[in-house]
Every structure is written in structure tokens, then in C-alpha cells.
Design a protein that fits this description.
There is one protein chain. The protein is α+β, with helices and mostly antiparallel strands. The protein contains 15 helices and 11 strands. Helix 9 crosses helix 11 and helix 13 crosses helix 14.
Length: about 425
Amino acid sequence: MFKTTHMNTIKFKYLALLFLIGMMTLNLSAYPIDGYGLTGIRRLLYLHMVLKGEIKATPPIAGAQLSLNDIRLNLTGARGDSLNELPKPDPVLQKSIGAIFPNLDESYSITALDITPGRPIRYACSQEKKQFQPGSVGKLVVVAGLFNELKNIYPDSFEKRQALLKRRVVRGGKWAVYDEHTVPVFDTVSKKLVRRVINENDSFSLYEWADHMLSASNNGAANVIWRETILMHVFGNKYPFISEAEANEYFSITPKSQLMQLAVEVVNGPVNDAGISREEWKLGSMFTGEAKKIIPGSGGSSVSPYGLMKYLVMLERGNIVDEPSSLEIKRLLYMTATRIRYASSAALTGASVYFKSGSLYQCREEEGYTCGKYMGNISNYMNSVIIVEHPDGTTYMVGLMSNVLKRNSAADHSALATMIDRAIRRL
């Protein structure tokens, strides 16, 4: 555990309490609300109708109401080119970040990069190359693989790539189960929205599967997108026309060792091409046991805050696959409903945030200890990767990873987000 001053301890406990209250109404969504026509993601139509007053429900906060055209990449051009390598830590920012963790132990690691327009780029870090289990943050690698294969099919038309994402509807099957993360399903006729777990017979468009993967962090949806990425790679231009039977046949007749190697390459390759090495970030297995029966894992998964920050930099530079793909991934990460974990910090209420988190915790019997969500006593990984854009122009990115046993790591990250925001905004 990290140590703070008495005053910081009081503030930390207060912020953690606020976070836990907010968790009672947990709901997580991404992608700009006016994107329904472009994507066909039905959840967006629901939110659009809420904003117009056609459906009675709590509207998204102001920071979640950007339009498609409001979202831009922050590091295209010469400013981004200056970040071929992450800079040396800025003394002032490093001191401010360090003050949050005066006795930082090996359980916490962080990278922070201030890219506010009109100011010099500032970087701060601590144990930035320490490796952690990525958990659901690994889905950022999967979405990079998806857009890479879309580019291979339609190299000269991003519009055709989007059309395929919108029109291609696939059934989840065994790949989509079993995961407790519920997803929003909106009936455009009855105008009813329900949140439920995914079952084998659920069919969604590729855009909706990707949205479920990133916004609801559904593991089954991540498997389906990974499966379709493999099929795109194998079938190429024929992919838009293959049937479910043809897809199933491919996976049934192909040796598992070959599937394992291909699965790793199609998602890790595009990230490596962007300049992030396998040592800095590697995704090695599917996200559920059912999917692992079809494609075994290969060598495990790991990532460091340094690898996370490099991904964000490359995303903002337009170098994850290409510029339109990077922008579309950023849109998919844009949070448009109640925020959780790091992103739930009250300091970020007015800001636009692009966010992915990942957790993995394990418990065993221990006298005087009761296992709780995000409070494991064997392992308790919590990872947060975020882009923050404040209305006053303050713009920064953070990769925060922790493995602090027996603490509610979700509440920790929310409280730490407030402290980090203050440290970065304090010039």
C-alpha cells in the first residue's frame, strides 16, 4: 500500500466513499451519441432519444455529449513526430506526481503525459516498465487487429470498412459465453433498453460487438471480434460473404497450434508495427474458457504503463493502423454514460474522457479476510488507461497499473485520478 500524509489520507477515504456510492448505479458506454446513423449501434439511438426528451432517463453528463466531429486526434503533425520516443521526465510534473506516492512501493506503476496545446509536452513516470497482467485493457490490442484487417480488405476506402462493420451481422456462438458483464440491448421498435448477459444465439453487427467489447468490457464480445479478425485475415476479400458454417468449418479443421500462432499474430502484429514491442505489450490468449477450448493460449499476456502510454501516443498520432482507424478507435473509447473506476473521479466530470480499464483478482480463504470484488488477496490487478480533455484545453494521458492486495482497487483508482488531475493541472 502507498502512504500519504494525514490530510491526503482523509481526502483519499472521502473520494473512495463517493466512488463506492457511484458504483451502485454502474453503467458504462462509449462512442459519440450522434453516431447511430454511421454505425448502427442501437444503444446510441437510445441515448440520442434520452437527450431529446423522447425517453425519460438520466441524460449523460456534459463531458459525454461531444459529437462525432468534436473528437479529433491530438498529436498529428510535427508535435506528434517529436514523440517518437517518450521524453525524459519533466522535473516539476515528476515532483507533483511523486508527491501523490511519497513512498510508492512496487504495487503501483504509472505514466502520465501532459499534451495540452500551447504548452511544452511534459512526462512523468514511476516504475513505468514493470509488467502487469493487462486484463481487459488487452482489448485495445484486439481492436487494433480488427482495424488492421479491415484495412487489408479495403485499403483505399475507410467508408467501405465502416460499412462492413455496420452491415456484417454475426452470431456469437460458444465464443460469446460465459461472461457476467451485461450489455445494453435497445429495441428500436418498443423503445425499451435492457441490460443482460450475452448468450450463444445473440447476433450483433461487428460495430455492436466492438462496442460491447470496449464500452461494456464484455469478454465474450472480445472473443467474437478476435474470431472475426482471424477470419478476415484468412478469407481476405471473401470475408464479407462467408457463412457461419464456413467459419465454423475453418476452426474445426485447422490445427490448434496453427490457430494459436495466427491468433497471436493478427492482434499483436499491428501494435508491434506501431512501435510497441512484444516485451512492452503482448496479448496471448482469448478472454474466456470456452474460447480457449477452440484456440489455446500462447505464452500469457503482459503490459507495462510504458507500453500503455506508447499505445495512446501512437493512437493520438494516427499510427494505430492509420489515421482514420486511430480516430475511430478513439471514438469507440469515448465514454457516453456513467463512468467507472478511474474515470468516475469527480474531477473529470466536465471533461471528455476516452477510457479503458482492466481488472483481475483472485482470492483464497484467510482468517479475518472476506473476499470482495477488486479486493483479491492472491492477486488484485487494476489497470486504467485514459485520455482526458478538459474544456479549458488541458489535455493529458495516463497509464496507471496496480496490484495492491485486499484493497478496493477500483475505489483507489478513482481517488488517485483526482490527485493526478490536480498534479497535472498545477502549473
